[in-house]
Amino acid sequence: MNDKSKVQNACVIVLGDIGRSPRMQYHVKSLSENDFSVDFIGYVQSPPLEEIRASPNVRIHELNPFPELELPNILKYIFKTIWQALGLLITLISIRKPKFILCQNPPAIPAIIVAYLYCLFARSKLIIDWHNYTYSILELEAPDSLIVRIAKKVESFFGARAADGFCVTKAMKDDLYTRWNVRATVLYDRPPQQFQSISIQDKHNLFLRLGESVSAFRMAQDAAGEDIVECTAFTAKHRNGEIKLRDSRPGLLVSSTSWTPDEDFSILLSALDQYEREALAMPAHYPNLVCIITGKGPLKEKYRKIVDSKSWKMVKLEMPWLENEDYPKLLASSDLGVCLHYSSSGLDLPMKVVDMFGCGLPVCAIHFDCINELVKHGENGFVFQHHQELSEQIGRWFYDFPSNIALANMKQDIQKHLKQFQTLRWTENWRNVALPVFKK
What we know:
The chain is 41% helix and 18% strand. With 440 residues, the chain is an alpha/beta fold. A hairpin with a 3-residue loop joins strand 8 and strand 9 (235-238). Helix 3 (73-94) runs parallel beside helix 4, helix 5 packs antiparallel against helix 6 (146-161) and helix 9 packs across helix 13 (387-398). It starts with 7 loop residues before the first strand and ends with a helix. The model has no long low-confidence stretch (mean pLDDT 93). GO terms for molecular function: chitobiosyldiphosphodolichol beta-mannosyltransferase activity. It is a single-pass membrane protein. Its main location: endoplasmic reticulum. Keywords: Endoplasmic reticulum, Glycosyltransferase, Membrane, Transferase, Transmembrane, Transmembrane helix.
């Protein structure tokens, strides 16, 4: 921190797991590096970034989670909302008065309501970071319900009364203005520095480490040649110390998810079924495929059972939980990414694609209205509508892998576009776009 007289107080609210809210963590990190002392409020179910935990300019205030009660859904929702509102209000009263509160949306209820009322009395500014719409997420499970109508009213009323706002796409900016007369600045997600390309040495070390718990990364030592002293399913270390990618390695496909209803993983499983059939029919042209799906969430066990029932011979799918430092390295070591996030509102963009692009990894992403603000079909990845298209894209990418001469020009062109994307990182973009709003 520079001159202490310049330091201003800020508050950031996430009514969710701080450790699984990367964009808000990046906000906190950037604020703390630019003359702000930050009170960061939220649930701490996963560890936040080390830079945040170690920063003298950040205080994390952990909210108590709502206790598990056997109640009808409507009563549970009412009691949970009251619990969260009181916990948030008590925490806000206990912190230093901030110049502004930056509040993530969703969820709007009760975070935006409590934050607005606090700002009204404390004479602080409320800034909303619109990641999506709360009502559109609730609509997935309860269309046309009372709670959806209430959420829509809350977002429109308090959104229009916030001092400022950010949003994640141009499409959302336009929609906010035409729908609710809310003005917001587009702050695109950009990859932070840890999401970048890595060396073959780092890839080899990662595969060795992951191989201790995930069999798909391991290779029996007796399958290696005499000249090889250390081997993974993808890499080999020779006696002279040189590390190379193995010519006969499997293809490495990666995806990440929170295992929620807005991502239909049956699409990927159907595409892998199709790949299995084609690879068995033409084994000389298609490699074995290792598919890694990271993340945790409510639907994970459902899909694990489906995967366990498969009798694939050419496809191996694993669902490990990765440490924070290993996830970017896995992306940078993979051959192709898959994104099944389709957006409940059609107006937000998946951060996982930003992370993959930051690591130089091309992506197959499911189509929705504004995905073309991020994924340009044929330039930095591919867009698909259904599992047949995804299967065709995976099959084309891995045909005669890893040395398909016919695909070399296309892959080089995609890498060129990804390198261009990698030049603008979160820190620089935030300083250009967000900092002026916070400094007002």
